[in-house]
Amino acid sequence: MIGKLRALKPRRPPPPRTPARPMGVPPEILRQVKLIELRTRGLVNSVFTGEYRSVFKGQGMEFSEVREYQPGDEVRSIDWNVTARMRRPFVKRYIEERELTVMLVVDLSGSERFGTVNRFKSELASELAAVLAMSAVRNNDRVGLVLFTDRIEHVIPPRKGRRHVLRIIRDLLAFDPVGRGTNIGAVVEYVRKMLKQKAIIFVVSDFLDPDIDHPLKLLAQRHDVVAVTVEDPSERDLPDIGIARLVDPETGETVEIDTSHKAVRDAYSTSVNAEREERKHLLRRLAIDEVSVRTEAGVVEPLMRFFRSRETQARRR
After folding, report:
1. Residue 106 domain-assigned (yes or no)
2. Cα diameter, the chain
């Protein structure tokens, strides 16, 4: 019961999408944008470029040219019409249609504005989204952004270029959402209707929202969906701090508990672990990969594990 308190959500229909409010960006936000760009650009150039490109392939192959057969070429690539005319073997060459669309769907609900170690969960989500955006643009892919709470808060359509990525990072840091709750189902349905062609969709959230299996299933049928779960250590283990008042950051509901009782802490851990296992089972059933990031750690190791796991799966296929 205690573990469920933080996950209480208002199940009202989301109001119609409101246009993004104009933002006067403070100088400190612009400085943060520059720092994140420098940090993520170094990571992308030194660590993630090859991993990203090898994991996320193009949508198909495009004919490039015909050239003379060389030892080692596959027989099935021989162009028999040209070979017959030239009276010596020629093969067709293809290049990968590299351009992809990457969509970052980032949760800005009340539970994301929480953290007890190095940073808020929302700050960690912004850094991870910045790395993914820089990796996409570095490979000449389009990247877009959807910020959501219990409604669609802000949308940046997919485009290319450094200036576009800097705008995405700026809005991740500076946007002040209206809502406090979470409605993953509504944003997933919005993205599904918004994207006409297959895309890579990173849903960045703590996934503290029920009834998400059907919307995610529909989204994963057409797109390559990756769930990025953002966690804080205090959400996994209740600290022994005596009498504590807990406030649900999305509904405002409060409850007082005595954390000095081991039975209370054990019940909390059992509930949280059950939620986590239920989410993992759901994502496995839908064949959606999960990247788990935590506020006490960075984004490099979780992303590298994800890329390597994807490469291993590709080799087995």
Report:
1. yes
2. 88
